């Protein structure tokens, strides 16, 4: 994204994308450094640890939602099976 003209983009959405880059495990260190630099240029000064914490909290809430779906009688069997698959996949990682 180097050299990209972001003048027509919503700065809050650009920042959200950059923060997401910092929080993801499958992103290279170089991409994370670039994202951190761009955030600082935009006036954001928070560190990477805060973004990683937010991502961990999000994942915890996602898992809780899947677990809740399993015990909710209003959730279809198809949705419960999907929740089971997601929970099994998360245990493998």
Automatic annotation (TrEMBL):
In this chain, composition skew of type Basic and acidic residues spans 75-93
State the GO CC annotations. cytoplasm
Alphabetized Pfam families for the sequence: Con-6
Q: Where is this region: Disordered?
A: 69-93
What name goes with this protein? Conidiation-specific protein 6
Provenance organism: Mycena indigotica
């Amino acid at each position: 994204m180097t050299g990209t003209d972001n003048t027509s983009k919503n700065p809050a959405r650009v920042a959200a994308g950059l923060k997401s880059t910092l929080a993801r495990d499958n992103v290279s260190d170089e991409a994370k450094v670039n994202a951190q630099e761009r955030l600082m240029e935009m006036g954001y000064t928070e560190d990477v640890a805060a973004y990683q914490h937010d991502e961990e909290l999000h994942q915890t809430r996602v898992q809780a939602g899947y677990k809740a779906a399993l015990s909710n009688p209003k959730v279809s069997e198809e949705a419960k099976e999907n929740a089971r698959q997601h929970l099994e996949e998360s245990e493998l990682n």
